[in-house]
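Lab channel / #folding
Pinned by the channel admin:
"Please post every new chain as: sequence first, then the structure tokens as a reply. Keep commentary short and put observations after the output so the thread stays searchable."

First post following the new format, from NK:
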Amino acid sequence: MESPLSATETPKTPVILDLLEFCARAVGEPIQGAYHSFHRHHHLSWDRHSGLQRFVGEVNMLFRRNALALELTPEGQARRLLPAPLAEVVGWTLFQTGDAETDRLLESARLRVLSPKEDDRRDALEKLWDAFERLKTLEPGANKRVQADALLDGVASVGSGYRGMLAREAAELTTIGNSFRIRHSEVTQQALTSQDQVDYLFTRMFAFVRLVLRRTGRGG
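Reply from TO:
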């Protein structure tokens, strides 16, 4: 970012958000105290909390006025406002899979999808797909196929229509991960061309993973 700011060129959104976070780390409220007659000035104190909250409130008001799906958290960190269905599940999910790496991948995906930066959200999608593949191997079994079937058996009754639907959805999600540029970057894979596509696939996968976690007692 140029200093002083250019009157004709607007910085990119991630740069502006970085500047806001930088300011939030230093902002505070000056409090005027008693008057010092000899030096003819007032004593000043510094209130970090009230200054930060005022700064956050004013920035968020500007975001709302301009219909931007962004906000500063009370701690002064920039994040985007998620679509309502995704915000509901992402905000209230705990991961207790019994496997530390799976928990780490899921939590990283949950946090990074909140980022206003596009690269972070694509990384969130990759981590979520990695967690999905790892989740398939948590049950006992001779191979990944047997382990994955055992996992879905804990979600729905064997032989039921719902169990069959879950198997088809798991297979479709696996195909999506192999066909699109999510986990791999071969030239044969199709790129995701918009953030709407990233959000849709994240929401679809996260809903499936959360269902599996809840029904098998692994959080959710």
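NK: The first strand starts at residue 29 and ends at 36.
TO: also worth noting, The helical segments are 13-26, 48-65, 84-91, 100-112, 118-135, 144-153, 161-179, 195-215.
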